Amino acid sequence: MKDNKTEKKGFTNWIDERLPIFTFINHNLRDYPTPKNLNYFWNFGSLAGITLVIMIVTGILLAMQYTANTEIAFDSVERIMRDVNNGWLLRYIHMNGASMFFIIVYIHIFRGLYYGSYKYPREILWMLGVVILLLMMATAFMGYVLPWGQMSFWGATVITNLFSAFPIIGDYIVTFLWGGFSVDNPTLSRFFVLHYLLPFAIVGVVALHLVALHQFGSNNPTGLDVKSEGDTIPFHPYYTVKDYLGLGVYLIVFAGLVFFAPNFLGHPDNYIPANPLQTPAHIVPEWYFLPFYAILRAVPDKLLGVLLMFAAVLILFFLPWLDRHRVRSANFRPFYRQFYWLFIINCFVLGWVGAMPAEGIYVLISRVATLYYFGFFLIIMPLLSKFENTPALPSSISAAVISEKFDSKEPAGSETYVK
Amino acid sequence: MLNKILYLFLFLIFTHPHNAGSASSDVDLIEQNWPFNGIFGRFDKASLQRGFKVYSEVCAACHGIRHISYRDLGDIGYSADEIKAIAGEYEVIDGPNDEGDMFTRDAKMSDKFVEPYENEKIARLANNGVYPPDLSLIVKARAGGADYIYSLLNGYKDFPENFEASEGMYYNEYYPGKQIAMPSPIMDEIVEFDDGTEATHLQIARDVTSFLAWTAEPELEVRKSLGVKTLFFLILLTIMLLGVKRKVWKNLD
Amino acid sequence: MSEKDLKDKDTIPSVDEEKRDFLFVTTAGLAVAGGAVTVFSMVDTMNPAKDVLALSTTEVDLSPIEEGQSLTVMWRGKPIFIRHRSEGEISDASNVSVGELKHMASDESRVKNPKWLVVVGVCTHLGCVPLGQKIGDNKGEFGGWFCPCHGSHYDTSGRIRKGPAPLNLEVPPYEFVTDDIIKIG
Fold this sequence. Notes:
heterotrimer, A: 419 residues, mainly alpha, two-stranded antiparallel sheet, 17 helices, B: 253 residues, Cytochrome Bc1 Complex, Chain D, domain 2, 2 domains, globular
C-alpha cells in the first residue's frame, strides 16, 4: 500500500485511487483496443452520441422560453424565433437536429445490418439499440407536437388514434392518452413533460449500449473476431481523430441545413396555428416516419395496419435469431448482399410512397414494398442462414487488411481472398 | 459502399416531397429572382418599405401581422421617431386603470401590430364567413413561399366558361381549388410610393411579397451571413482535421 | 498496477512528440475557439430578449398624487416609489450634512424636481420591498422608508441612514416629459 502511494503521485492519481474515473476513461477512450480496419461507417455511433448531446442542450435552453399551453404555445415559439437572442438559431438547430439524428441513426442501423453487428456475441448490444430507436421515435413524435401548428395537431390526432384500432379497450386508451376527448391542453402538457423526460432515458440506455459494446469491442468490416493484438490499435489517437474528422464533415451538412434550408425537411402547414376544425388537405408525418406510415396505409384493415407498423420496428429485436448465418459481414455473403441492397432501396421506396396520396398505383407499390420489408426478415434471412455458401474467409483482420492493400480494386469478400 | 450510400442520400433529397402539400396546383408558379434568395441573400430595404406601405394601406384592412411589433420596423430602416408616428396611428385597449376601467391609448413601439378585427368571429362576419389569415407567417406557411404569394397576387382572371363558380368567389389559377374569397386586392396606382417608384400592379405585388417574406423570416439576413461564416469556419477546420488525421494514421504504415 | 499507470504513455510514443506539432496546435485552437463562440451564442439566449428590453420604459401621470402621498408603479418588474414630498420632508432631506451619511449623496443630486422623489423600491441589502408607501406604514426613524426584513431605515431622500443596507435606494433613469408626466427608463 505504501509503495503504491510513493509510486503514483499527483492530484489525478490521488483521485483515481479513490474514484477510478481516469482509469475508466483511459480504458474506454484511450487504450481501448479497437480493430484497425474500421471504415467511416463506424463514425456514426459517436455522431449519434454527439447529436444526442446537442439535442439535450438546445432542448433545455428552448424549454426555458417555450410555454406548453394551447393558447400561447405557437406564439411562444414565434417569440423564440423573433425576440430571443439567437433564438432562431437555437430552434432551427433543435428542429433540424431531430432530422440529423434520424439520418445518423438509420445509417448506423444499416451499417449494423450490413456487417452483421447484431450477431453473437452482440445480441444485447443490438437490442439496446432498438430500444434507443423506439425511445427516439416517441420523443421525436411528441416534440413535433409542441409548436402547436396544423401538422403538430393533426399528426398528434392521427397517431394517437392508431390506438383506437385495438378492440374493446382502444377507445379508452385514446381518451387516456389525450387526457380528454380530443387532443387538447392536457395532451400538449403531458407531451411536453415526456418530451423533456425521455431523452434522459435515452442517455441511460446509451450508457448500457456502450457497456455492452465495450464487453466485446467493435465489430469490423470483415466481421472477423479480433484474434491477436496485431489486429487492433488503441482508440486514442487513431479513432478519436477519425471521429473528429467525421464530426467536421457532419457539422458542415448540419450547418448547411440550419442556415440555408432550415425548413426544407419540414412542412409549411406547421406555420399555421393548430385549428381543430380544419384538417390540412394532405397530411404527412415527418420524413423519418414515412416508411412506417406507408406500411400502415398499405393494409386495408385498421387493426392489422397498426399491428404491422409496430411490428416493422419490433421485428428488429429478433434479428439475431432470424439471421443465424455463421458469417457476420455481408462482404463475405454475396447473396445476402444482393438482398440487403434491395432491402435498402425498398426502405426508400416505402418512404417515398409514404409521402404520396394513398390512392391508385401508390397503394400497390406500398403493398409490394411492405411484403418485401417483412419477407426480407422472415423468409430471406432464415433461408440464407441455411443455404448460403460463402467464399473462404481471410485468416484474420490483419490478413484482410494486407490483401486489401495489394489488391485495392477488388472489394473485400471477393474470391481473391481464398487462401 | 460509400458511393451507394451517397447516391441514396441524393435520391432521398430529390424525391423528398417538401413541395407536395397544401398549395397543390397544376399551374407552375411565377418564379421571381428575389434578392433574399441564395446563400448571400439580403432584403432590399427600399422594397420592404414600399411593401409595408402597401400592407398598411391595402392588406391591413382585413389581414393582421400579429407576430410583428412596431419596434421591428427598425429592422427595415425606419427611425424610432418614424416608428412612434406609425404606432401612434393605431389604438390599443389597455387597462384596467385605477378606476377599474379598460381604456384605449395610442399604440407604443413595444406593442404588437393592432389586428383589424377584435376576434375571429367578427372577422368571419365581416367577410362572408371567411377568415382572412394572419400574414406574418404566410410566406413560410405556404408551399412555394414568396413565389406563391406573388403568383397569387397576379393570378386573378375571369372565370373560364363552364366553371361552376360559387357566389362571391373569384377565380385565381394559383389558389387550391381555383376559387378564392378575396377579390384581387391590388391594382395600378392603388398606393403612391414615397420614393417615386411607379406603382404598377407588378411592382406592388413584388414589394408587398418582399415585405411579407421579411415578416415571415426577419432573421434571414443575420442567419445567412452567420451561415456563410460558419460554413467557412467548418470547412477550414475539417480540412485541417483531415491533415491531422492523415498525420496520425501515418504512424500505422 | 504498473501497466495501468496513467502516466505511462510509452505505448504510443509518437503522439507526445506530435502534440507540439504546428498543425495539431492550430487545429485544436481553432476548434476550441469555434466551440467557445457556439457556447456563448447559446448561453446568450438566456439574456433578456428583445421584447423584454422593449418594455423598459413606463410613463407615469403625477397629477393625481397629492402632497405627502406616494405612488408605486411597476418598471421592469420592480416597484418604483414616487413620493410627492411636503416642504418639511424636503427640508429634512436637504438639511442633512452629506459627510455624515453612510452612502454620501446630496438631496439635490437625487431629484430633478425637489417636490418629487423617484426611487427604485428595492432595499439595497437583500432585495426586499421597504415599507412606507401606504398611510399607516412604519416609515422608519427618518420618515422615509423602513425595510422589515433586516431593519434598514431610509430617509425622505431614500438614503440609507441606519441598518445593514450598504447603499441608498437607487434612482432610476427618468425624465419629465411635461410638468406632470415622467417617463421612467
